Amino acid sequence: MAVIDVSFRNLTLLLYLALLVTITYALCVVVYRLFFSPLSRIPGPWLTRISSILEANALKKQQRTRWVSSLFEQNPGAVAVRTGPKSVSFNSPDAIKAIYGHGKGAEEFVKSSWYDAFSTTGESLFSTRSKKRHAIKRRMVAHSFSAQALQSFEPYVDATLDKFMGKIDEFARVQEPFDIYFWFELFTMDLMGELALGDNFGVLEAGQPARYSALVEQSQRYGNLSGMLPFGRSNVKVLSWVPLPYIQRLWKARVKYLEYARAALEKRFQDDRGRVFPSEKARQDIMQRFIEAQDPETGRRMDFEELRAETSSLMVAGASTGSVTMNWMIYYLCRNPTVKARIIEELESMFPDNLDGTKPIPFTKLNKLNLLEHAEIECLRLHPPIGYAMPRDTPPQGAVICGIFIPGGVAVGVPAAIMGRNPAVYQNPNKWDPDRWSEGTAGLAMMKTSFLGFGFGSRQCIGRNVATHFIMKMIAALLLRYDFELENPGLLLGTKEFTIQKPDQIYRVVIKPRKI
Fold first, then answer.
1. What is the pLDDT of residues 130-189, one digit of tens each?
2. Dihedral sign from CA coordinates of 383, 386, 389, 392
3. What's the domain range around 500?
4. Number of domains in the chain
5. So where does this one cross the membrane (predicted)?
6. Rounded to two decimals, what is the model's pTM?
7. DSSP string of 261-315, one letter each residue
8. Rounded CA gap, 222 and 240, in Å?
9. What CATH number does residue 447 fall under?
10. CA 344 to CA 327: how far, in whole Å?
11. Residue 31 lies in a domain
């Protein structure tokens, strides 16, 4: 008994010692982060030095970008603010080049562990952190987004656009106010279904969203939250163990969405095997090009799980970002009738045989309309779909960014929404002015290199041309076919951040056939 008693006391002592060491270590870490870390000199709420809880709370309240913006407002002149124990946001063109530029070897900034939370059934172009694997993937699928590919996609864009216009014609006949952004979302859902899965979801005909749309948003919010918290980065399932109703709801949505993507992709394969094409060639859409893609050096193709991950990524990137950008274009064109009239004049000059907008508009001509493209870019400057910083980890030895030394392994980035309104780069930054992008404008070179609407460097959005393709076709068709105005001409529309920055309120437009 004495031996057992001694052993028990020794075990108790060891446990106390272990607890004491843990507490001492934790206190040392807190003290270091609060007072001695190089990051402690970067402005930001004191709690961000030891916890990511403020950023996580801002995300939950759908105000993450606005919260980071407020930190810069509270620290005038600061080029960087602290958003977490190991995360810093910058607001400077020099930071863009340093963080997202083409660094090599020891100087390279790699994607942070935040992206691991978005690797679903495999790494996608968006989520892979390895520069080498990204280069291989991009090399495999680059042809899927080429000019030739856009021409092969155009029939699907035109067919979906024709369905959309049929629905808008009904609103034009009665001339009653309606929520155009809602219909933009249905259009992009059906279009991305066509391009990514070989069939539309039928949401335009039904006049209501597909089940997957709500799951996408909740799944992305889960990934955002998981990637922000240390215990959620190593394994995305870890966050699902937190017994909070909000977390559990997001996790269940993620599981359902991935299952939805799996079933939809399997159906695509089954349909293709049972379909006879007159040309004896497979349907030429984005997914078919992904299926056929192979590494030119090794001949490797993507397996099903990798294609499933790319499908999930495509559906989010294409549907959500395209619809919200079209929304902002309509809103700003309604508020700027002079710009709208100038674009219509250019369209009428280029398409004199299509003044009522009832014929398909070829993108090969449309992409020569600079003012229309500048209107899109200006909307993306003010309202980039992803407003917060896309994080990169500093190299192990640390780095000097904008004159500030940042230790190794710190997530750094430049929020697109904040950079887009930097007064040092953009004159009258809160004014919507497409003409600022015209050739010869003072400071144009800096504006272009500071524009983050599609990302920056080698990791910028590979689908940029596809998105611009259908956005410009949509707006051009609407401008030629209808006259439209805001139901409330004095409406000031703001943003509400889900994963994508969306309008902060439902607004309606009045639309009627255009007088030619």
1. 777 777 777 777 777 777 777 888 888 999 999 999 999 999 999 999 999 999 999 998
2. negative
3. 37-513
4. 1
5. 12-35
6. 0.87
7. HHHHHHHHHHHHHH---TTSS---SHHHHHHH-B-TTT--B--HHHHHHHHHHHH
8. 9
9. 1.10.630.10
10. 18
11. no
